[in-house]
Amino acid sequence: MSPKYYEITMIGLFAAYGIMLPLWLIVQTNKLALNRDFFVSVLRMSLQLLAVGYILKYIFKISIWYVVVGVILAMIFFGARTVIDRTGLKFKGLGLLLFLSMLAGAGAVIAFVAILVIRIEPWYEPRYIIPLAGMIIGNSMNGCALALERFYNSVKEQHGLVETLVALGATSREATCKMLRASFRASMLPTLSNMSGMGIVFLPGMMTGQILSGMEPLAAIRYQLVIMLAILGSVAFASYLILILEQRRFFDEYHLLRSEIFNQ
Q1: Which helix (H) or strand (E) holds 145?
Q2: Around Cβ 14, how many Cβ atoms within 10 Å?
Q3: Contact, 105 vs 234, CB < 8 A?
Q4: Residue 213 pLDDT more than 80?
């Protein structure tokens, strides 16, 4: 007997929005000044997901490799833009550095998992590759944002120390190596923390969704393990790449800090 699948009806979906009512009352009662953020976030999420749903429905039908690749590149591009907006850093060339870091870090992991681990046939099957890419790119984006912001602020706050070390003969890489290591560690901590609590403290969303849709728990767990390892690898690769590229961008050919970057 196959597991029963419960579909969420439109009435059920609208009922779910009822969760917002007590939350709104808490915000109003305590004067938390979150009304605008509260409703805008829910509205944006709803409209964006509905739009993506219709787009994916169309893409799933056509299943053309260059369309799928184009969608993934667009996801990486908008992920890079989101990092820039989130960090508030806008020095020249940052967008390209982020795009290249996420393309190399997340793109390589997506290809490896799709072709060699899950062995999707064909490799560009959009029903599998696009959700997979979304999870990997989204986490890479968060890792890059943490690494970028932490490293920039560290160098800016300790620019006197960096310049002193350079004046004493250190290269730009030697002068900022401790800051780079701390920034890389900060970018990895959220992923590592999630992995440590997974299974005992909480059940991950993807695995829960697969089980609710009827997949056997052990099969869902195998998928979750692969996804988490892919996320760990993509976050590490993308974060490390943006740190190395950022480090080089911060200094000129004489290993001096570029004043136009740190005078924002």
Answers
A1: helix 126-157
A2: 9
A3: yes
A4: no
Q: Please give the pLDDT value at position 3.
A: 62
Looking at 8-93, list the stretches that DSSP marks H as alpha helix, in order from N- to C-terminal side. Answer: 10-16, 20-29, 35-62, 65-87
d(CA 115, CA 123) in angstroms, rounded, equals 6
Domain boundary assignment for the chain? 7-61, 63-262
Tens digits of per-residue pLDDT, 114-137?
999 999 888 889 988 999 999 999
How far from each other are the two terminal CA atoms of the chain, in whole angstroms?
Answer: 64
CB atoms within 10 A of CB 129: 24
**Do 173 and 251 form a contact (C-beta atoms < 8 A)?**
no
- Give the Cα separation of 173 and 176 in Å (integer): 5
Task: Round to whole Å and give the CA distance between 190 and 79.
Answer: 18
Q: What is the DSSP letter of 198?
A: B
255: left (phi over 0), alpha (psi -120 to 50) or beta: left
pTM for this predicted structure: 0.85
Give the three-class secondary structure for 91. coil
Indicate the angle between helix axes 172-197 and 217-250, nearest 10 degrees.
160
